Amino acid sequence: MKVNSTWNVLLNAYRLFIRKLKENSSTGTLIRFLWFLFLYFTGRYFLLLFEGFLFFSLLHEPFLFTVNQVSTAFLGLFYDNLTSTPEYIVWINNREVIRLAAGCSGLQPVLRITFILMLYPVSWKAKAWLLPLSWFILVVAAAIHFILLIPVAFHWPEYYSFSHNWGTRIIFYGFYFLTWRIWEKVGFPSC
């Protein structure tokens, strides 16, 4: 008898949560933001399960290539002697400056945003075009991340760790927030 009543309480709480999650109000927006954050952190641990697999490491390659090419092409406008090796090591004036690591390729944010969007309360029709848009936004964020770190590593190497761990990371989280705001405007237009 007690198990049945506990189950009913949990079921009613779940129904209330789903109703509030889909509600087009400021309370609904707050709950969806908290849901986004919960999925963001859950997605981080979900991805840890796949990091050891070979296909996961192979997926990094196109992301590394794209971020490296965009970043070095853009910064090549400002640095005369900027080159990049096939191992994604950037050289300026024949000096090794920085290496693009797999963790900065943009793959993990793209997979995380996919996980979040699949569980986010917008229609599947909206998800069909929000997903590629969100991917694009996060790959652009990864490129901006690398574009900002190259000059710091070249001119002010003593500030590289701070810039990588705080400055560009805050910018990256801003891009996550941008994707969430786009989802809100599409899925809940009056909020």
Textual characterization of the structure:
The chain is mainly α and about 190 residues long. It has one domain (about 25-185). Helix content is about 70%, strand content about 5%. Helix 3 (about 55-75) packs across helix 5 (about 125-155), helix 4 (about 105-120) packs antiparallel against helix 5 (about 125-155) and helix 5 packs antiparallel against helix 6.
Question: Which strand order do you get reading across the main beta sheet?
Answer: 1-2-3
What coarse outline follows from CA principal-axis ratios? Answer: elongated
N-C termini distance: 42 Å
Quick one: biggest sheet? Answer: 3 strands, antiparallel
The number of helical elements comes to: 6
Mean pLDDT: 89
Percent in helix = over 70%
Count of extended strands: 3
Low-pLDDT segments, ≥5 res: none
Helix/strand class: mainly alpha
Task: Give the SSE map.
Elements: H1 2-21, H2 26-48, H3 54-75, E1 82-84, E2 89-92, E3 95-99, H4 107-118, H5 124-155, H6 160-187
Helix pairs in contact: 2-4, 3-5, 4-5, 5-6
Concise summary:
The protein is mainly alpha-helical and 191 residues long.
Name the features.
single chain; 191 residues; mainly alpha; three-stranded antiparallel beta sheet; 3 strands; elongated
